[in-house]
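Journal club prep — side note

Before the paper discussion, L.F. wants everyone to see what a predicted structure for a comparable chain looks like in token form. Sequence:
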Amino acid sequence: MAKTGIVNWEEVDSPRTGSSSTGQNDRPKPTFLRLKANEQYVIRPLAKPMEVWKYFTQLNGGTRSAIVEDAEQCPVAKSHPDLEAKQKFAINVIDRSDGELKVLEAPPSVFWGMRDWAKMTKKKPGGSDVGGDFCISVQLPPGKNRMQTKYSIQFIEPTPLTDEEKKMAMEDPGLWDLEKVYKPHTPEEIERLLFGTVTDNPESSSDGESKADDDVFENENKAQVQSEPEAEPKTEAVVAKDEDLAW
């Protein structure tokens, strides 16, 4: 089944059975690490990834998106046969370019590399003492359209978290609560976000880009246009437990 929710690394693969949690909070919108064409990014994953299922539509010249809890049971999809949910994954990371805590959302192929490393080494990419840095490369040949963007990821070296990094993840400001950053929209919200008027979806713009600065991500070797949830994000810090950073 195609459900949005936190997963273990071995579940970073095909659609799974699971559940997601919901909640209200008032932390400001998280900082996202946005993948740009022909750039490289060094990241340090933290804790577990989250599987996210999204709908995307093109309407009034803009790209719209909504998060669905269970894509196989969604009544909106049943009333719009052409609507297809796309699988993404997200995780807290330290962006090595500036040392800041951010949320990385990317297509499954980016996370498969971290999953495979975890399988081969029996270590967790986001572990406090056993995790490490990874390099993500984004390639888009000249003259090609964004749908032909390719991604690769490779392990660089083990990087046990420093005391300062542990404090950042476990105390101040704390990891972004992915289950709240990616809280699924209700069927009514999905209908409004994807098919409502322009004023119903303030994140969309006439040039096909969202105010959230849409990125291009590959989904199973095919790039997809990605945008952050158009509804006001409801996020808060989540204090990482020792076991979250130690698995």
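L.F.'s comment for the group: Confidence is low (pLDDT under 50) at residues 16-25, 201-247. Keep this in mind when we get to the figures.
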